[in-house]
Amino acid sequence: MSGPQKGKNGDMEQTYCMIKPEIVAAADQQVGAVLAILNRAGFRITGLKMKQLDRATVEHFYGEHAGKPFYGDLCDYIAGGPVVAIRLERENAVAALRELIGATNPADAAVGTVRDLFGASLQNNAVHGSANLEDAARELEIVFG
Ligand code: CMP
How remote is the CA of residue 3 from the centroid of ligand 1, in Å? Predict the structure, then answer.
């Protein structure tokens, strides 16, 4: 049996992408450029909002990283200004978005990926993309309800 949300080849999926505060705050704000890259890659944008997440929400969102050395700084940074929250739909959306945004560290991100183009550092890496279908559902619920 196949159906939505299975994560198999060809299945229509939803995933979550978040343009991080340093991009939203920058003088040359590249929000439109990121959205264009997503559309060109075949994603439909089915939810979109600019929103400042409070720290408790960010702590919950990044709960899997609690206790790691970068967790406190990460929560301060993400809660420190508005993000652009994007709900995306496409076949194999989760894996396709991960490929499109590139490695977590922009220094390791493949040429032409979003983090290669717009990422500044391991922390300030321009965008977040859900790691798997379960995270996608959880993150979309946190941000979009
Ligand atoms: P993201 O994909 O949003 O997931 C967790 C975030 O933590 C990551 O992108 C970076 O912004 C940030 N981060 C900071 N330091 C590290 C690290 N050493 N390893 C992974 N993520 C890190």
Answer: 32
